[in-house]
Amino acid sequence: MRYLGYPLLCLILLTGCAGLADYTIPLPNGYRIDRTSAQQISIYSEEPIANEQNYRYTPPKITHIWWNDDFIIAKQAILKSENNCVAVPTEGKYAFWIIDMHAHLVYGPFDKNALAQQKELLGLPQKIKWTAIEDLHQ
User: Is the pTM of this model over 0.85?
Assistant: First the structure.
């Protein structure tokens, strides 16, 4: 038994434990950021999107966020598949999403110009201070 314990311990240490880097960051009004892997970071809610059964409001990978009492704006790194279908961010390519937290609606994806137009239509400030997801998880 003694000889079996050491290799088993080494195997556990070398393979790591899945989920140790996963986390949830609470946001206002029942929304949250869930990180289930390095590339799978999305915004979810306790309530589904209006007229749908989907609780995930954005596709992955959300890198930055801004919010007020009514809206969440998310910056999403566009993912592409590489070797063995591993999803990695495409350098410099982003999409933007706006979530109406009270109506449970999601608008997007937008590029920078379309985001500015949608912010104007919704009465949101044009200049916002982005917060990196990593800065929210301390």
Answer: no
